[in-house]
Amino acid sequence: xxxxxxxxxxxxxxxxxxxxxxxxxxxxxxxxxxxxxxxxxxxxxxxxxxxxxxxxxxxxxxxxxxxxxxxxxxxxxxxxxxxxxxxxxxxxxxxxxxxxxxxxxxxxxxxxxxxxxxxxxxxxxxxxxxxxxxxxxxxxxxxxxxxxxxxxxxxxxxxxxxxxxxxxxxxxxxxxxxxxxxxxxxxxxxxxxxxxxxxxxxxxxxxxxxxxxxxxxxxxxxxxxxxxxxxxxxxxxxxxxxxxxxxxxxxxxxxxxxxxxxxxxxxxxxxxxxxxxxxxxxxxxxxxxxxxxxxxxxxxxx
Length: 302
Ligand code: PAF
Fold this sequence. Notes:
Rossmann fold; 11 helices
């Protein structure tokens, strides 16, 4: 039986009882409309922790005006069934006024790691994410919290927040879960028309090709490798494959998120983050590749 908790008070009481019995708490924060990526996070938490809490909260303060807050997919009954079959016992689903009662005014300000990529395209987004995640961590007080690598910048920003603010939770990185054709799973994939869905895997293809080019260029110490040119050709591939436009396609350090603008920058990078966001119809999809330059994948490693 899955228990749906809607108040902070009940969540805190339930957690206190669990902790009294000596069990560790795993936590999977989500905005709901589950897919297999969410289910993998839940299963891993269940495997590694005594009890697992999953939250569903479409956090209004991480959406800018004009973004998809109103149409973000929601289906609690479907989510309940999926979480229950994954073995989850507790779903925390607070309403907006429970999380942000009248008079709420405090915000966490994410630092420079949040300034580029999605942070540049979605001003205030990561302040909203950090604020809600910090609130959820304070309510659930998890030992471990599980985040997917698809939102790699979010993951790095949250890791930094927990380090900077001395939060005791351990952040666990989990590999991106993909459809058979390579498309990264996302609740927003439900926005895609059949035609857009067919075109969407081009994003993963572009990332894979660019990853390969970077690994090959490293063999000759990036001599003659022109990042700008490579990025332009992959952007053209995306727009030629059904994408309406590319928000960003950038190469960076996976550790500092500093952009690598030329071969010289790349030479000093050990682990690469290729970050992509692109529009297909009205939908903005993001994806990434994170890899060691000696080709050892870092996806999914703690
Ligand atoms: O990745 C998400 O689903 C959200 O950004 C999160 C972490 C649940 C915060 O609202």
